[in-house]
Amino acid sequence: MNIFFDCETYATNMPFYRDKVWSDIRDEVQALKAPGNYKDPTKIAAWKHEKTIEIESSYEDRINKTAVDTSLATIICIGYAIDDGQVQTIIGTESDILKNFFLIAIEGHRYVNLVGHNIIDFDIPLVFHRSIINNLRPPGCFHMNHKPWTPDCFDTMKQWAGMRGHISQDMLARLLDLDTQETTGADIAELYERDERDKIREKCAFDVEQNRQIYYRIVRGG
């Protein structure tokens, strides 16, 4: 049984990490040292002030980068399809998303082949890590030892670009003359902050269906 799936994520909601980022920023500010050719105290103060603003203003960017960290990212939506079935999306709290995904899509099936784009490096570790953080036991198919050649996982990026190569799903879809969409992963944070859940669902569902079409093109060769 093939399970095509895709995860949408948002920046970390873990307070300890946000505190750590602020602590790191304060340390960087305290360690500021003007270039040796700066002698005028006024110029030194102005330089430190400018650099302090620059470092402190990087806080949001540093937090936003956690959306692609499999340990820190917050799962806000999972889209999936079983074989040729209709694409479904699950949205809500991270814990509920994972519970429902496991219950509806995974449990009760003896053989599961996970299919997606860049899932070996991102989506599978993400589900594995976030399940354990949420005190959930991930299904056996979600583990950290998947390889492109194992029979329980088909990563369309690896299958196309190789072990060390990279190609976005959008680019691969364009190469194969498949439908594409305007909304990208870069838009998810803004949609989430505006509570536009339907648009997040639509983007996630589109990605799952697009990936399914990519999968069939690869395995059928045309």
CATH superfamily: Ribonuclease H-like superfamily/Ribonuclease H
Structural class: alpha/beta
Averaging pLDDT over every residue, what do you get? 94
Question: How are the strands of the biggest sheet laid out side by side?
Answer: 3-2-1-4-5
Q: What are the segments in which pLDDT stays under 50 over at least 5 consecutive residues?
A: none
Biggest beta sheet attributes: 5 strands, mixed
Total number of beta strands: 5
Assign the CATH class: Alpha Beta
How much helix is in the residues?
Answer: 40-55%
Looking at the overall shape, the CATH architecture is 2-Layer Sandwich
How many structural domains are formed by the residues?
1
* N→C terminal distance: 22 Å
Radius of gyration: 21 Å
**What amount of the residues lies in strands?**
5-15%
**What general outline do the C-alpha atoms trace?**
elongated
Provide a concise account of the structure shown:
Helix content is 49%, strand content 13%. The chain has one domain (2-13, 66-220): 2-Layer Sandwich (Nucleotidyltransferase, domain 5), CATH 3.30.420.
